[in-house]
Amino acid sequence: MDRRSFLKATGSSVVLAPAVFSSQANAQDATIQFAGSVPMTGAASETGLNVKFGYDCAVKFINEKMGGVDIGGKKHRVTLNLFDDASDPARATSLIQKQVDEGVNFFLGSFGSNIVLPTCAITEAAGRIMVQAGGGSDLIFTQGRRRVFGLFPRASRQFASTAAMFKTLNPQPQTVMFIYTNDAFSKVSAEGASKELEAAGYKVLNSIALPAQVSDVTDALGTVRAANPDILVCSTHDATSILIARQMVATNTNVKMLYQTLGPQTAAYVEALGKYANGVVGASYWDENAKYKGSIFGSAKDFAEYYRANFNRPLTYHMASGAGCIVAYVEAMKKVGNVTDRNAIRDALAGLDLETFYGRIKFTSQGDGDPVLLGPMVVQRQKGDLAVVYPTEAATAPTLYPALPWQDRT
Amino acid sequence: MTMRIFLLLGTLIVIVLLPQFLAPFHIRVVQLFFFTAALALAWNVMGGLAGYWSFGHTVFIGMGAFAAAHFVAKLGLPAGPLQMIAGIVFGALFCGIVAAIIAYPILRLRGIYFAIAMLGIGQVAAELANNVGWFQGDVGLFLETALPDGVEPERFFYYVFAGLFLFTWMVSLVVMRSRFGYGLLAIREDEDTAKMLGVPTEQIKAFGFTISAVLVGMLGATYAYSLGYFTASSVFRIDFSLNMIIYCLIGGIGTLAGPVVGAALMLLLTQIILGQLLELHLLATGLVVILIVLTLPNGVMGLVGGEAFRRRFSMRAGGKAR
Amino acid sequence: MRDPHFPDRQAMLIIQTALNGLVLGGVYSLAAVGFSLIFGALGIVNLTHGIFVICGAYAAMVLFHVFGIDPFLATVPVAIAFFFIGYAYQRGLIQVAISRASLVASLLVTFGVALIMRNLLQLVFSPDVRTITPSYSFSSLTFGSLRIDIVRLIAVLVSIVFLLLMALVLSKTAFGRRIRATAQQPLAANLSGVNVPHVLGQTFGLGAAFAAASGAVLGIVQPFSPSSEDFWTLNAFIVVVLGGVGSPSGALLGGILLGLISSFTAQFIGPSYTNAVMFLVLVIMLLIRPQGLLGSAFGESR
Amino acid sequence: MAPVKTEMVGVEMSMDAVLVADSLRYAYRGVPAATDISFTLAQGSITALIGANGAGKTTSVKMLAGALLPDGGRILYDGNDVTRLPAHEVVELGVTLVPEGRLVFPALTVRENLQIGATARRASADLDRNMERTFDLFPRLAERRDQYAGTMSGGEQQMLAIGRGLMANPRVLILDEPSLGLSPKIVAQIFALVKRLNGEGISILLVEQNVNQALAIAQFAFVLEKGRVVKSGSGAALMKDPAVREAFLGGL
């Protein structure tokens, strides 16, 4: 990272702090009020902030660029009232209750299933709606809630598209190994993936669980070298992903494909790995090069441009997911023609099937994202950029497989 | 005496009627207050009276929660008030048994070493709960509450926690008034002398530790019920342990009212006043903690208690945890 | 027929694991030595320790990105700066709290400062994970099938240099002698002409300097963010309890022990159990020998 | 015994007073330990402070040494007000307290203990010379110079504590209960040493419960009771005082 981009990145949150407050100020007669919590501090704060920037971006666009959104023949502005839940479920529940009391009808989600679950139980019981992009646990969707929607598929179904991508590789990989962080989301998605891959005929050699805070993976990599899998799948937090990749380079541990669900998309990853990031594959629920477009924001590219022009925090798919939540709400409201009928809006959300900048938004009957339409695309770092390699119809480049050994990467 | 009974009755009436006048959010805040104040009171039995500062009391919150969840799942009890009571009682008992077993070895340690050992035990339990598949601490556990018809969850748990708080308060009161309580105080002032004078320090410490654990386990199991779904990281939180200490210190350690006042003050600050400060609430909380230490070295109760109070209960006297 | 001189795979694995453990242990020792000094000499459980470490890492990152200063070189200015910061912090805040309330009050104060600093770091640097990546970050040494990161190896060497430096300062200089005397008998030291508050401040400053300098090195070894602060405080705690309070050799021993436990657990039981085993060993150690393997370097008075 | 008025002690009359305590007061958290402490230490003298346990002797000398800040009153050294000076600056002026209970640094060697004693600037240049003198005075310490102080006997620790005090080049040496808990033989040695040091020109303030021996070598003595000075006079006079004999010397 050069000096300029460094200063830009460190300055970003300082510059943006006032924006948070101003977004609450412009309340007019016709407004749509969104509320909820995000972890701005604590364990989940990094991704939490990403989602928050997505929410902020959508609100700014709708209010400033579109001058409000036309619902039932009337322009509506959007307000956003978020608080920091500090990654703490107790804090989140009491403050969500506060917003329920204040009459908020439309909630946006926090990040992390152990917060989303208790909070969505409150909104559900109060008959309010939550559209979220931060809780993937199956339990959120399998307990009969009717007013909770997730922009992502539930954890156990998130690997479907990746498994399909493996099928397209040539030569066909034979063996896969897993490293995952031992938390609800990573574990369930790794287990789901493992089952899916075994069913598809791959041999799963080993699954290594890592603690949430890890300072050294040398030993796990020793196991990787000994097992020598074709593909190493890491379902880990971004800091751990960086650590794994760096130590793989340093200890010259090579696999034909390194697949890291979270990490390769982020700026920190590229900053940490430089040229070695090239060839690493990851999951992305959205990419600016995908050919989707919708009535709000326009195309995926337009969203990326608008975001970058107005915000300094490096863009990841979480921003798009956050904005996608608000877009889903607004599209449903447009259909209903008002912003007050909670039941009608819930039904409209449940029935949504519509292309947007984020992709085709369609929920399952239980409220989570459609595993095919809203499942992840597979991306690969190529020549410093992020290329979509699967699904084929959205691909911007072919998959590089097998990847070059670390020392040959440029 | 009659004055006291009236005071107690008055308090009870206020607690019972309060939810009628509060919005659900404030009901939840008061509920959280009952929960955290009871935790601080339970910690205070060992930390405040005996001078044994546990940095890992959250272990009993987690253990209570996990024990309750597995117990009711194992027995396949149908969700309902009976199941909840069974779960909470089992969670409390389980913590009591574990505490009684570890009490003798762990209470041989003093001061900061006891504090760290408890921290370590808390961490071991948290890691095991999270990583041993059987415990399911990583994917999470589910504790369903069957609410009586027409009762909102926040109101229901308000009364549950209010009851547990009063129970903990009564236990603390009885402990402080008893010979046993004076035994704990003697241990805090000078354990070796107390022992030489024939005070059965070993038994007293073990008993105090077990009582404290039972209370915290009971609260932990109930907390798990109130969350509905919890993972190891929801209940094994170091900040629970820290908060118990901080509430006691801020209110006035070793007293009955101190932990309660401390909890009330800090909740008021963090939940209501500073909750809206978005990115600055940690900073504000930190500042408040520092200011209180510098301006009220004996806690809020030291402010109202006068010189005699200070001599008996000041942080200096309790300050053996080096 | 297998060549009898060729070590079989299991033996190599054990050697590699031990090597990894030693290297990791060096890193842990490095991060713990400042905590050890402050805890041992002042009796203060410094919950700001992890903040010093992380601040050191951020400082090294800024120096690296803005001025191109190598993080290993950055340890020097970072240490000097944090000596003064630590001194001012101790005299200006911690000492005031202790004299107004008690030694335990310092626990609360450092806790409060840690909250504030974590919040400030998040505001300034965002909660994102950061790394420092000098050109040599990806090299490793290979001996047969044994492999080791160069960065970690250098970190271990730096760690040993730091520990030696601190051992020398403590045992050979008049300054170190005053620190030890003050730790053992503050009143007698004062009556002997030692300016005790000044020495306490200097001791704290020295501890902060070591913590921050270790952070500058750790920043190359692994990713960091404001929320990794408590990890380093906790680790330092364990290292000190394992090895013994206050002495550099205790920190080294504790760190290496912790590293070995960590790497053998990771290899033979599973990485997710490393923390559980680490803390289990801590508890057992406390029960058997609470003063740590080497005891307190400051005598029995603490 | 009736309290002695301050003017009887004579703050202004003693031209040769090196150290003067004038109406010092101190309370530990509200519990008074010293209510009215006034006495003078004449230049070149041995002066004894005697009194029962809890009479305020240690509190008084800690105030003199700067280890406690008096709640009221004044301390004059060579006529200058030094009441508010901290201990390490008092040492710098030449007043050194060898504290009760010895308080050696247990995990420092004998030599290091002595080196710490020479921390003051007034003493650092003479470190080697003073170390030699201490080893001359206490051959036991010379033998054990590299041993940890914590491993030595009580008598040896007392010698070390006095040696450490001498390392600061004191003009005034305050000894707080130097004979406490020691065998008669060692006590005799220590009293002999006190006389010898006094002979070398050091003014000595001796705090003792061992009243008999203290009065035997002291030119002046002050009697403390419940935090105040109640009697004063020459050592010999007090030895004959019936009240003093009654209180401290078994009534004979």
Give structural notes:
- The complex is a heterotetramer of chains A (410), B (322), C (302) and D (252).
- Chain A has two domains: 20-154 and 287-362, Rossmann fold (3-Layer(aba) Sandwich), CATH 3.40.50; 157-284 and 377-408, Response regulator (Rossmann fold), CATH 3.40.50.2300.
- Helix content of chain A is 40%, strand content 20%.
- Chain A has helices at 3-22, 45-65, 89-101, 113-125, 138-142, 160-167, 184-199, 218-227, 238-250, 267-273, 300-310, 317-336, 342-350; strands spanning 31-38, 69-71, 74-84, 106-108, 129-132, 148-150, 175-181, 203-210, 231-235, 257-260, 281-284, 293-294, 298-299, 353-356, 359-362, 377-382, 385-390.
- In chain A, strands 8-7-9-10-11-16-17 form a seven-stranded mixed beta sheet, with helices on both faces.
- Chain A is globular, with a radius of gyration of 21 Å.
- Chain B is mainly alpha-helical and 322 residues long.
- Chain B has a domain at 29-239.
- The radius of gyration of chain C is 20 Å and the shape is globular.
- In chain C, a hairpin with a 2-residue loop joins strand 1 and strand 2.
- Chain C has a single domain (13-288), classed as Orthogonal Bundle (ABC transporter involved in vitamin B12 uptake, BtuC).
- Chain C contains eleven helices and two strands, in the order H-H-H-H-E-E-H-H-H-H-H-H-H.
- Chain C has helices at residues 9-42, 49-67, 71-100, 103-125, 150-172, 174-184, 186-191, 196-221, 229-243, 248-268, 274-288; strands spanning 140-143, 146-149.
- In chain D, helix 4 (110-117) packs parallel to helix 8.
- The longest helix of chain D has 16 residues, at 184-199.
- Chain D is globular and about 45 Å long.
- The model of chain D is unreliable at 1-14 (pLDDT under 50).
- Chains A and C meet through helix 1, helix 2, strand 8, helix 8 and helix 9 of A and helix 1, helix 4, strand 2, helix 5 and helix 10 of C.
Features:
heterotetramer; A: about 400 residues; alpha/beta; Rossmann fold; 2 domains; seven-stranded mixed β-sheet; six-stranded mixed β-sheet; about 40% helix; globular; disordered N terminus; B: about 325 residues; mainly alpha; two-stranded antiparallel ribbon; 14 helices; disordered C terminus
List the helices and strands and how they pair.
The complex is a heterotetramer of chains A (410), B (322), C (302) and D (252).
Chain A: H1 3-22, E1 31-38, H2 45-65, E2 69-71, E3 74-84, H3 89-101, E4 106-108, H4 113-125, E5 129-132, H5 138-142, E6 148-150, H6 160-167, E7 175-181, H7 184-199, E8 203-210, H8 218-227, E9 231-235, H9 238-250, E10 257-260, H10 267-273, E11 281-284, E12 293-294, E13 298-299, H11 300-310, H12 317-336, H13 342-350, E14 353-356, E15 359-362, E16 377-382, E17 385-390
Parallel strand pairs in A: 1-3, 1-4, 4-5, 5-6, 7-8, 7-9, 9-10, 10-11
Antiparallel strand pairs in A: 2-3, 11-16, 12-13, 14-15, 16-17
Helix pairs in contact in A: 2-12, 3-4, 9-10, 12-13
Chain B: H1 2-21, H2 24-49, H3 58-75, H4 81-106, H5 111-131, E1 141-142, H6 153-177, H7 179-196, H8 201-227, E2 229-230, H9 232-235, H10 238-251, H11 257-273, H12 281-295, H13 299-313, H14 315-318
Antiparallel strand pairs in B: 1-2
Chain C: H1 9-42, H2 49-67, H3 71-100, H4 103-125, E1 140-143, E2 146-149, H5 150-172, H6 174-184, H7 186-191, H8 196-221, H9 229-243, H10 248-268, H11 274-288
